[in-house]
Amino acid sequence: MNDYITIALPKGKLFDRSASLLARVGWEAEGVSEDSRKLVIANEEKKIRFIITKPVDLPTYVEYGAADIGIIGKDVLREEEKDVYELLDLGFGRCRLMMAVPEAKLRPEMEDYAHLRVATKYPRCAKEFFDAQGIQMDIVKLNGSIELGPLIGLAECIVDIVETGTTIRENKLAEVACIFPSTARLIANPVSFKLKFDRLHGLVEDLQRVLQEEKEGKEGQRK
Question: What is the largest CA-CA distance in the chain?
Fold first, then answer.
């Protein structure tokens, strides 16, 4: 199967846009769906295979070469710190990792939050942020609804990913700091990128062209 390119797609909010963008440049296979029960979906003619994974697992598939390339959010990339090449910022799935606290517990300075308990899905990123601020925090790793932490007394603040901020406002939380912005990225296994350079480099160029065309189209509509 060395002549195939295996692509990992993430379940969830990035899936539809990822699949449609790849299809626009001819990288598609019949039956590619987030709900597919097939573990591997192939286009034998174009020698392309798709696997659909949980976002948190996707960088691991690419790092170990089970997938040659994948599409994943920058937030997951920074948290997982896998040995992969980041080929292209695809620009969609825009969101940000932020720190928030209950509105009633807003404090004047960042150092005023020292030694609080923080609920987060992103313990590595949270620790890096607070270390950079020079404050020590007690970080609690959660996988579910992070906003629940302050509501039930598990934590005094949260570090979580947000798009519009509606959910945190509905739960009476206020954003304290934006840690970093995040968008979808095309990543590659380093060995695969060298061995299959021509096809993968061609894919990057095709995606850049399509993204530029979309950008120009949007700009034209605004005029």
Answer: 61
Could you tell me where the beta strands, DSSP code E, fall in 19-156? 41-43, 48-53, 69-73, 85-89, 95-102, 117-120, 138-141
Could you identify the residue written with the tokens 């040995």?
A: 83
Alpha carbon distances (Å) from 86 to 6, 62, 89, 144, 181: 16, 11, 8, 28, 16
pTM: predicted TM-score of the whole model, two decimal places: 0.93
Report helix, strand or coil for 95.
strand
For tokens 């199967």, name the residue.
1
| Residue 122: closest CA among 100, 104, 106 | 100
pLDDT at 66: 97
Average pLDDT score over residue span 71-80? 97
Q: Is 153 exposed, middle or buried (0-12, 13-18, 19+ CB in 10 A)?
A: exposed
In what helix (H) or strand (E) does residue 174 lie, and over which residues does it extend? strand 173-182
Token pair 């912005």: residue: 181
